[in-house]
Specification:
This protein is an alpha/beta fold. The chain has 10 helices and 14 strands. Helix content is 31%, strand content 18%. The strands form 3 sheets. Strands 3, 4, 5, 6, 7, 8, 9, 10, 13 and 14 form a 10-stranded mixed β-sheet that branches. Strands 1-2 form a two-stranded antiparallel ribbon. A two-stranded antiparallel sheet has the order 11-12. Bound molecules: zinc ion (ZN). Zinc ion binds at residues 192, 194-195, 197, 240, 242-243, 245.
Length: 308
């Protein structure tokens, strides 16, 4: 059974079976147990939630394995452990199948049946003392890079030796962007129903139509509050760069992960806001205006667009 199907079958979100509806791009990322994987993410696309479920599923589906989940610091790991991991582990029967006594559970350690999952704020002690079959690094770019390298030594005794890093990008050629650049670079395409062209939709004038926007604007980040007040953002849409027809981003059968360099040994995925139909042009422009107001345009690129 694929990891994504297993998660749907065995876990719930807000008391309903977990679903990938509207977020179908997550399936392949969940199913991919590649030993060396880098995923560039943007905000509001649910990847941390997905990673936690994949991490716990790996522990539950393999007998007697260990895995380490790192976050950049103690405050972050404690928050994730308490608010996301603990409720999930406690509420799903599939994570509580141990036949003997009470499982060992704390903020930093979850026994899942015969396996162990460690959560850490990327600390030296953990990087040199726990042996693991898999390392999941969340927010790679905010983490101490030397420490991340040190964690590699923890995989030496394992048959799996899996390292998967996920992050909002920051600087070009640093952290998750560096990992993605040397990878096979999967992009989430959308096929045009009119001309058949395969698009990698981006927030640029080649793809984005906003009624009322002047054709003189070559860089959409130039939109400010004054310009936005003349735009019909509710009617904005994403179009085919080849023929101009509206792209049906919500139609999973038109969408597909395609690697730019299929022969490369490292795996990479880039998740952008148009990977899901839930994030609209209007949302991206609203965020742009807010980040501009706070004089934080760089962060808008990193977190909203997922660009370094
Ligand atoms: Zn087209």
């Amino acid at each position: 059974m694929l990891m994504s199907d297993w998660i749907v079958k065995n876990t719930r979100l807000r008391k309903r079976p977990f679903s990938f509806a509207g977020y179908e791009f997550q399936r392949q990322i969940v199913d991919d147990m590649h030993p060396n994987m880098s995923v560039i993410k943007c905000s509001q696309i649910g990847l941390t939630e997905i990673q936690i479920r994949k991490f716990l599923a790996f522990l539950a589906r393999n007998v007697g394995v260990s895995a380490i989940f790192t976050l950049p610091d103690d405050a972050m790991y404690k928050r994730v452990s308490q608010t996301r991991v603990k409720p999930l582990v406690e509420s799903e029967a599939v994570f509580n199948m141990q036949t003997s006594e009470k499982p060992i559970r704390s903020m930093a350690l979850y026994q899942i049946n015969q396996s162990f999952g460690y959560f850490t704020g990327n600390k030296e002690g953990d990087a040199t003392s726990i042996n693991a079959d898999a390392l999941f690094h969340d927010e790679v770019d905010l983490s101490d890079q030397e420490m991340l390298a040190l964690f590699q030594s923890r995989l030496q005794g394992s048959d799996y030796r899996i390292t998967q890093g996920f992050s909002t990008p920051t600087y070009e050629g640093f952290g998750v962007d560096a990992g993605f650049k040397v990878s096979d670079q999967h992009e989430y395409m959308c096929r045009c129903t009119k001309c058949g062209h395969h698009n990698i939709p981006a927030f640029t004038p080649d793809f984005v139509t906003i009624p009322g926007l002047s054709g003189d604007i070559n860089d959409l980040s130039e939109i400010d509050a004054e310009i936005a007040s003349h735009l019909d953002l509710g009617a904005a849409y994403v179009r085919c760069e080849n023929c101009g027809a509206r792209l049906e981003l919500h139609e999973p059968s038109l969408r597909e992960w395609v690697p730019r360099y299929p022969g490369r040994r490292q795996r990479g995925y880039r998740v952008t806001p148009f990977a899901t139909p839930r994030l609209t042009v209007e949302y991206i422009v609203d965020q742009l205006l807010q980040y501009k107001q706070r004089d934080a345009l760089r962060r808008w690129y990193n977190t909203v667009l997922g660009e370094p």
